[in-house]
Amino acid sequence: MLPIFRSDLQARLLLHLLTSDHGDSASDLARATGAPVPTVHREVTRLAAAGLLRSEHRGRTILYRADEENPATVPLRQLVLISHGPVELLRQTLADVPGIIVAKVFGSWAARASGEPGPSPGDVDLLVVGPVDRRALFATLSDLEPRVGRPINPTVIGEDRWARSDDPLVDEIRSRPTIDIVGG
């Protein structure tokens, strides 16, 4: 992860707002990020005051969306996608892929996300468990890589291998930080 955002919440809010095609209220954003509404409200108010977001009143609700006329929006979207986007984009992309029982990000990306120090990951290691069509999965991931800004390296294994406790790869993945994408 690139330490360029004021907080992880700011990065997650920007990711949501800069990749959404509709406006969201502070309550919607709180649900999406798991943060308290007052904290989200303060953060989106700061981002709107800085000109990164537009706000629109709908009755008593304020909806926030990216200000597409701000020249910083496109490069900021690219930065947030590179630094925080892979997990969310993988969740959106793999949710409907048939045959995936479990999918997890592991390796350096998961280690950095859990707070382990080290250089920014150069790729995203992805474990996929289940009887998935490998060609379709690889094509889907290839299409996603330009948005993520780095290679995605899938490792596909069957349920029986994932269930075993004597497999070195499975043991290594289970002993280190992971991020759930599909299943758990």
From TrEMBL:
> Known Pfam families for this protein?
MarR_2
At the highest ranks, the source species' classification is: Bacteria, Bacillati, Actinomycetota, Actinomycetes, Micrococcales
Please report the stretch or stretches of sequence annotated as the HTH marR-type domain. Answer: 8-60
The entry lists its GO molecular-function terms as: DNA-binding transcription factor activity
Could you tell me which InterPro entries the record lists for this protein? ArsR-like_HTH, HTH_MarR-typ, WH-like_DNA-bd_sf, WH_DNA-bd_sf
Name of this chain's protein: ArsR family transcriptional regulator
